[in-house]
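Here's a chain:
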Amino acid sequence: MQYTFDNRKAVVDTASGLVKGYEHNGLSVFKGIPYAKARRFHAPEPVEKWEGVFDAGSYGYVCPLLSNDRPNGELYVPHRFWPMDEDCLNLNVWTPAPDGQKRPVLVWLHGGGYEAGSSIEQVAYDGANMARLGDVVVVSVNHRLNILGYFDLSDFGEEYANSGNAGTDDIIAALRWVRENIAKFGGDPANVTVFGQSGGGGKVTTLLQTPAADGLYAKGINMSGVIDLLADETGSGREMVEALMAELGLSSVKDLETVEFRLLAQAYRKLRPEFQKAGKYVGCKPQRNAYYAGDPNQVGFRKETAGVPLMVGSVFSEFFSFSPSPYDKSAMSEGQQEAAIRAFVGDEGADALIPLFKKAYPERNLIDLTRLDYIFRTPEIEYIARRSALNGSTYSYLFNLDQPINGATTPWHCCDIPYVFHNIDLVEHTHRPDGDNRLAEKVQEQVFASVMAFARTGDPANDSLPAWEPCSPERESTMVIGEDSRTRENFDHDLNAAVRKYLAPAVARQMAQGRANIQH
């Protein structure tokens, strides 16, 4: 691999003016390109053309967060932190060359719900390996979050009509920029795949349900983005807005546009718990209205999007691997594991769950049942059934590869991201202590090849994996990715129903004891 750096090259003439990135290791890289501008709570507007050359050699600002949390869990989800400012509507591009070729384009939407995160937050978000090894153009997007991007002021004037979805409008503005400019970066504007994890996966769904996004993308990949925690906001934000104004001593809504964000966030954090407890509108999630149709598990998918192929999946444990496990499965016999399960869920629950778990996951230790996700998987099963009723191009997967932390830890929320980006070498948790990473490398090739095949054709099938058929409402054909990757039909549906009945209450009791350490 040849490492060269040259910032005298990689100049592209965009609709807003010249941008200069740099060449490095066979790629042209552009960072922090403005795609729109916006006043607080208002819809994004086009960027004014600039004179001269815009220096796209540095990442742009990321959206301000409501709080400055102490970093934790970095071995599980390695992060990067960056300067924050409301002038955050920018994007990054990695391309093999700005040469006019029509390569597939993949637009990454970051996680963090609709409240946190950034396009560069996780180390594994780096698009260089994906662009180089896949011969594709990768774009990652910053947009407004939390109350800056999802806060309803529509009762206070037409200018705020869609402030409850301003962050989604930002993403749509970024996709318009891609459609207008990406050909000059070597990408095909007619072959754009939007993909994202957690809140980023939720944003893929939000785009499907927003008519203004139609025609701006061709395919979608929703990674761990189907969860009831991201359910829509409904109703009016008037009461919260008025409470904020009172808390801040403001006399008009216009003053909310200019009050220092630090003070606005402080007041919001103070008021939010009381509003949440009362079940009132608090914002920070998409708002169902005339612009956004709503969560498809509640209102159905828009039929206008039937032609958009979709990959949908999650990982084995999701949030539950963030809680310390009281069990050392490497030192437990199967009898000891069964006894632990009976102590956890009771005899009736164990009698129902154990045979179903063995059937669904014959390769796993029995005690892994206590780490099995249902928070994502339950709504995901319904989501896939609804989506596959529209078309023959809905594909299901489950990431099932343990990571070599503390011996072997069931896969957690976010741990599949490095495999998608071909970035397992950038994070610690994929590396075995003995240096034998052949299994992780094999799975990385399988995941990456599937994503690249899907980006090219709308079908993830490829030579590295067994046959992968699309789903139907009656038959979910799930590619279970792990040591022995293969498709399984409706493999966990009965198990999932039993888990909701017997395991969920036990897990809720455990989490109530404060043992969970959940992060995006």
Summary: The longest strand covers residues 187-197. The longest helix spans residues 334-360.
